[in-house]
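Predicting holo structure, 1,3-dihydroxyacetonephosphate bound.
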Amino acid sequence: MNLMSTHKRVPLIAGNWKMNGDTAMAQTLTGAVDEGISSLSAEVVLIPPHPYLRVVKEAIDDRQSRLGLGAQDLSVHEKGAHTGEVSGAMLMDLGCRYVLVGHSERRADHHETNEVVAAKFVAAQRAGLTPIVCLGETLAEREAGQTDAVVLGQLDAVIAAAGIESFAQAVIAYEPVWAIGTGQTATPEQAQSVHASIRARIRDNSDTIGGQVRVIYGGSVKPDNAPEILSCEDIDGGLIGGASLEASSFLGICQAAL
Ligand code: 13P
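Done. Tokens:
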């Protein structure tokens, strides 16, 4: 199988810092990443923890950087008595363009169901944000031969709630749970196969949107495995965890997304 292609979609590389960093790190890392991306064509987005969104945004603005800003989660609610929650409107106010919904760590740690994830997707778009909806199977599900059923079930819940047209303003991230933070990345063949299934599902509903929507891969992407993964036909970029915490490794991945 020839997995290589010339991408028509602009690649997106997003760094999900998860619950890491502090003010000094956020400033330094944003500056260092900005310095390294000037000659690259990929869209690059930083996704710091909520308390550092403003710090990163100020560093982006000070440098007149083309780096984008995203958040890791949002509330399904628009406003009101929901202690500890952060609304989509607040994230817009802080200058975010993107927000993750349905990351597997939130599905697991906070019991977010497919329906909750779909409601967050809708809430993000209602606020004017572009959701990056995360899909992925566990190792047990893969070993039971359920990968496509699980991933497409997660996707179908969002299509049912938001409609296929909503994917004109959304990104899909395929992140196999067993590959996150484990150092065990999916092979390019494994990843491409699931990405193709995801795109086919969108195409079944709208051929145009299926051709346009970016489907990015996450799970132990590093500079050494990024070139192979990112050159697959249906892989339009990466959602990077651990390797996004160091400018050199994050930039190494960005350079692979040509
Ligand atoms: P790692 O790159 O650390 O495996 O994390 C991937 C991820 O979960 C990004 O959202």
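Residues 12-256 form a domain with the TIM Barrel fold (CATH 3.20.20.70).
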